[in-house]
Design brief:
Shape: globular
Strand content: 5-15%
Largest sheet: 6 strands, parallel
Strand order of the largest sheet: 1-2-3-4-5-6
Helix content: 25-40%
Length: 202
């Protein structure tokens, strides 16, 4: 592994569910490092990552519920975390592009962070659902997180992932796609009798 992404719940705020389901503007306090889970700092993780030769990445979700109008404020949060904790990779999740204004603001965020860091910061754009940038827009700012599938709901099959990679590689360079290989030994009972069950994948 070259990179380990710290996922949702590192922050003081409630998480992706709140971002998606509650129509409110999030204050900067939402994006403070959780005191409960991480003691308000990433300092304990940095030496472990460095010793392991792994770069840390961070999940985050800009305010799509206000059309990303606070993009300058969010840019400062990303730049601060880049400078203070040396994060170069940010996963951008929970995106909803409902208007041209939202599209412009989101692109302004991505472009300005890339420019301010001399291209050192790279975005991982989640294209799982909804109207989001990805295959045809904003690919110059990073790579594409292809999908979310889970063995919990029996909707993950390794051959589906490989098929998606193969079909999309005609249009998008394969190195721009982040695809998932899950723990195939989880939830085996949900795939009982299924010849394509993840556990059967060699």
């Amino acid at each position: 592994a070259e990179c380990y992404q710290i996922d949702d719940t590192w922050q003081q705020g409630e998480g992706l569910g709140r971002l998606i389901n509650v129509n409110e503007h999030l204050t900067p306090a939402f994006w403070k490092i959780s005191e409960e889970r991480l003691h308000g700092t990433f300092a304990g993780l940095l030496p472990v990552a460095e010793q392991s030769g792994v770069e840390l990445a961070l999940w985050c979700a800009p305010s799509s519920n206000v059309e990303f109008r606070d993009w300058e404020e969010f840019r400062e949060f990303l730049l601060d975390f880049h400078r203070r904790w040396n994060f170069r990779f940010f996963k951008i999740d929970g995106v909803k592009i409902r208007t041209c204004e939202a599209e412009r603001n989101l692109e302004a965020l991505l472009r300005s962070v890339r420019e301010a860091t001399g291209g050192r910061v790279y975005f991982n754009l989640d294209t799982t659902a909804g109207r989001r940038p990805g295959y045809f827009r904003m690919v110059e700012y990073g790579n594409i997180f292809l999908e979310n599938r889970y063995t919990d709901w029996q909707n993950y099959y390794p051959y589906w992932t490989l098929r998606n990679l193969w079909m999309l590689s005609k249009y998008v360079p394969a190195e721009k796609l982040q695809i998932e290989f899950l723990n195939k030994w989880r939830n085996t009972e949900k795939y009982a009798g299924d010849p394509f069950a993840p556990a059967n994948f060699q």
